[in-house]
UniProtKB/TrEMBL annotation:
The lineage of its organism: Eukaryota, Metazoa, Chordata, Craniata, Vertebrata. Pfam families: A_deaminase. One of its GO terms (molecular function) is adenosine deaminase activity. It comes from the Eukaryota. Its cofactor is Zn(2+). Its main location: membrane. Keywords: Hydrolase, Metal-binding, Zinc. This is Adenosine deaminase. Belongs to the metallo-dependent hydrolases superfamily. Adenosine and AMP deaminases family. It is found in: Cell membrane; Cytoplasmic vesicle lumen. It is a peripheral membrane protein. GO terms for cellular component: cytoplasmic vesicle lumen; cytosol; external side of plasma membrane.
Length: 328
């Protein structure tokens, strides 16, 4: 795509590009976000690139042994038309955020057909661009029966903007029965998690590690069985958590039998697979097969699938694990 569009990339092979894009030692979250500037100009605005990446992601995750995935992205960051400002320094083109969602859905559905796993998507509002949020929730409504299952709020938690448009988008999502998750407490303080839960009515929290700094909030969320989307390798590389995995907040989540799942985050930049994250848990946190099973059952229960499909997914897991379903 780089050659086709005449947009230069560092390196002439995949391996050379990865040396510039991926990394293995901690950076700040802000530095990590800068990595997108290297390759996104090649992808954004290109219909075939958008569809193909969605398709190949399903292929990759099927090879990793997944039964179900929820992938998240910002439609606006892949568009070059009807988006203000046009991202990544692109010239104006003819790919709108709406068509981006349609292309991703097509790629995911083709991947489902060919690789026999279930794939759904979550559309992201971006913290630094509240003006995009009204359209994000409208796209969630439009495509809710066509691969899209939820809305998310992602990006730098430290950015100072008027967040009223984010709030309105989440109010509309709740009104329409659209599922809601929010990146909160990754690099930001517990106050961001409070905002996500009580103001934005999030059903799940992306990361949420800093919840432990507010014991009362943590206790309340444990009681509510709030689901935390945990990404161990990512939290190490972004500096969101201490570099010693034995002191990772996940060790406390595990001890308290919290409701959480294990996820990969930005597999290109972090050069990560679910096996890498599982390996960290096994080596540094003493996770057993039983614990992994519990985590995956929690993930399925907290998924944003419709109830019948969720039950089918749970039954698939119970059968694979040789488990008798529990009522809890």
């Amino acid at each position: 795509f780089s050659r086709k569009r005449g947009i230069p990339l560092p390196g002439s092979t995949v391996e050379e590009l990865l040396e510039h894009v991926s990394y293995k030692t901690p950076l700040t979250l802000t530095k990590f976000l800068e990595k997108f500037n290297i390759y996104m100009p090649v992808i954004a605005g290109d219909r075939e690139a958008v569809r193909r990446i969605a398709y190949e992601l399903v292929e990759t995750k099927a090879k990793e042994g997944m039964a179900y995935m929820e992938v998240r992205y910002s439609p606006h960051l892949l568009a070059n038309c009807k988006v203000e400002p046009i991202p990544w320094g692109q010239e104006e083109g003819d790919l709108t955020p709406d068509e981006v969602v349609s292309l991703v859905n097509q790629g995911l559905q083709d991947g489902e057909r060919d690789f026999h796993i279930k794939a759904r998507s979550i559309l992201c509002c971006m913290r630094h661009m509240p003006s995009w949020s009204p359209e994000v929730v409208e796209l969630c409504k439009k495509y809710r029966n066509n691969s899209v299952v939820a809305i998310d709020l992602a990006g730098d938690e430290c950015v100072k903007v008027d967040s009223s448009e984010h709030r309105k988008a989440y109010e509309e999502a709740e009104r329409c029965g659209i599922h809601r998750t929010v990146h909160a407490g990754e690099a930001g303080p517990p106050a961001m998690i409070k905002e996500a839960v009580y103001l934005l009515k999030a059903e799940r929290i992306g990361h949420g590690y800093h919840v432990l700094e507010d014991p009362e909030l943590y206790k309340e969320l444990l009681k509510r069985k709030m689901h935390f989307e945990v990404c161990p390798w990512s939290s190490y590389l972004t500096g969101a958590c201490l570099p010693d995995f034995r002191k990772h907040p996940l060790t406390q989540f595990k001890k308290d039998q919290a409701n959480y799942s294990i996820n990969t985050d930005d597999p290109l930049i972090f050069n990560s697979t679910i096996d890498k994250d599982y390996g960290i848990l096994k080596e540094y946190m003493g996770f057993t097969e039983e614990e992994f099973r519990r985590v995956n059952i929690n993930a399925a229960r907290s998924s944003f699938l419709p109830e019948q499909e969720k039950q089918e997914l749970l039954n698939t897991l119970y059968e694979a694990y040789g488990m008798v379903p529990s009522a809890s």
